UniProtKB/TrEMBL annotation:
Enzyme Commission number(s): 4.2.3.1
Catalysis: reaction(s): O-phospho-L-homoserine + H2O = L-threonine + phosphate
Domain Threonine synthase N-terminal residue range list: 2-80
Residues annotated as transmembrane: none
Entry keywords, A to Z: Amino-acid biosynthesis, Lyase, Pyridoxal phosphate, Threonine biosynthesis
Protein name: Threonine synthase
Protein family: Belongs to the threonine synthase family.
Length: 469
């Protein structure tokens, strides 16, 4: 399988190359040259497979020759063996039409583990084939950071520099990152910065020759294609349980950087019968505005009880715009340059109409989030986190045909956001035993000004050079 950049001018790479490259050299994002497609019979034959086997089956076309089928399967067994639930991403029924897909049974209690546990192993596998060292520079609004750190802590040939906006992640999220004291882990709390600022610094570093000449910069954010690839699998796992390929399923996805819901789009392109993808935002609603009326303009970020979705520049939306705009990299490069200059752009008619065929969107304010948390608790006995609540709110008002099951992606464990859950329900969710001593652990984190030069200097003083020797 070959990967091409959404902006058309970076060299095409194979899966190994795209995984290690992260961002394309023209500033675009890598996507497969074409979507692999499964027939209905091939999808039906996946029913009942254990998660790791299903994962290998769904991902093999994307991986191509970079890994043998046996090796891919071994890596999947290792990655998903660390989950605390046998089903890895179990389903819970809420009522006659609504379901929760629980994505928080991995080591750091959020959906990011599903992809990052595998990505850590892929880095190790691919770096082991050369003398190359990787300098991962990442941005997090709370969950990617801890999942990435868990996945690469202590691994040879990888350093990770993870930026979060100081004071804008929950205490649990921060501690999950800062209490990992492995020498290759570097946490940076950026002063006066939003997640969007952190993400912009990551992207700038990929195009800073002074850095890329010395260091092999790598990505763990969803700009890295391998992240999305691994997330496609759970759409298959769930739809198969609910009757696919014979029956359609709709998904409601709490959305910030558009990675998780883009994985649902990929699953549909691969032949999964996805009836609708509901893009659920909090009040940081750039995606809701873009899908509702074509207005993709960056507002300022408002802190909410769902901090991981406090995002106003939604990285992976570019991948959708590329696909819906006829895969014209030059045209998209011009459109994105306009956005970067003006902080605003209008979707083209083709992009708007293409998106409307599959996507719908909804924005939840603080009150709607709290009501959804309360509804799940009082009616179904389920404690849900505020991100999941945005999507459950959206799922319940989306007006999906009652014969179609609607699955809300439960992206984080409620104990990551105990205050918001307790305010809404009167119940304070406890941390699972495996992270029960989080508040007793020592923290290590550098506070750094939220400016590119300060971060680049911090990284340059500590990262390993590109290659050994
Ligand atoms: C708990 C949680 N839910 C939802 C999201 C949004 O996912 P995405 O950025 O893939 O749209 C995030 C962060 O990305 C998150 O951490
Ligand atoms: N919500 C994310 C933001 C980063 O998104 P990513 O999926 O691109 O890594 C977080 O929790 O850090």
């Amino acid at each position: 399988m070959e990967y091409v950049s959404t902006r058309g001018s970076a060299p095409a790479l194979d899966f190994e190359g795209a995984t290690l490259a992260g961002l394309a050299s023209d500033g675009g994002l890598y996507v497969p040259r074409e979507w692999p497609r499964f027939s209905a019979a091939e999808i039906a034959a996946m029913r009942g497979l254990p998660y790791a086997q299903l994962a290998a089956r769904v991902m093999q076309p994307f991986v191509g020759d970079s890994l043998s089928a046996e090796r891919l399967q071994e890596l999947c067994e290792a990655a998903y063996g660390r989950f605390s639930h046998q089903a890895v991403t179990p389903l819970v029924q809420l009522d006659a039409q609504h379901w929760l897909m629980e994505l928080f049974h991995g080591p750091t209690l959020a959906f990011k583990d599903v992809a990052l546990q595998l990505l850590g192993l892929l880095f190790e596998e691919f770096l082991g084939r050369s003398d190359r060292n990787l300098t991962i520079v990442g941005a997090t609004s709370g969950d990617t950071g801890s999942a990435a750190i868990d996945a690469v802590a202590g691994r040879a040939k990888v350093d990770v520099f993870m930026m979060h906006p100081k004071g804008r992640v929950s205490d649990v999220q921060r501690r999950q990152m800062t209490t990992v004291l492995a020498p290759n882990v570097h946490n940076l709390a950026l002063e006066d910065a939003s997640f969007d600022d952190c993400q912009a610094i990551v992207k700038r570093m990929f195009n800073d020759r002074a850095m890329t000449d010395r260091f092999a910069i790598g990505a763990v954010n969803s700009i890295n294609w391998a992240r999305l690839m691994a997330q496609v699998v759970y759409y298959f796992a769930t739809a198969l349980q609910l009757g696919a390929p014979e029956r359609e399923v709709a998904f409601s996805v709490p959305t910030g950087n558009f990675g998780d819901v883009f994985a649902g789009y990929v699953a549909q392109q691969m032949g999964l019968p996805v009836a609708k993808l509901i893009v659920a935002t909090n009040v940081n609603d750039i995606l809701h505005r873009a899908l509702a009326n074509g207005d993709y303009s960056q507002g300022s970020v408002t802190p909410t009880a769902a901090p991981s979705m406090d995002i106003q520049v939604s990285s992976n939306f570019e991948r959708l715009l590329f696909d819906l705009g006829g895969r014209d990299g030059a045209a998209l490069a011009t459109q994105m340059a306009g956005f970067e200059a003006n902080k605003a752009m209008q979707l083209t008619n083709a992009q708007r109409e293409g998106a409307a065929a599959l996507f719908t969107s909804c924005r939840a304010d603080a009150d709607e989030m709290a009501k959804a948390i309360r509804w799940a608790w009082e009616n179904c006995g389920e404690l849900i986190d505020p991100h999941t609540a945005c999507a459950l709110h959206a799922a319940r008002i989306a007006g999906i045909d009652p014969s179609i099951p609607v699955v809300t992606l439960a992206t984080a464990h409620p104990a990551k956001f105990p205050e918001a859950v307790e305010r809404a329900t009167g119940r304070r969710p406890g941390l699972p035993a495996r992270v029960g001593d989080l508040f007793e652990r020592e923290e290590r984190c550098a506070t750094v000004p939220g400016a590119y030069e300060a971060v680049a200097q911090y990284v340059a003083e500590r990262a390993s050079p590109k290659a050994d020797g």
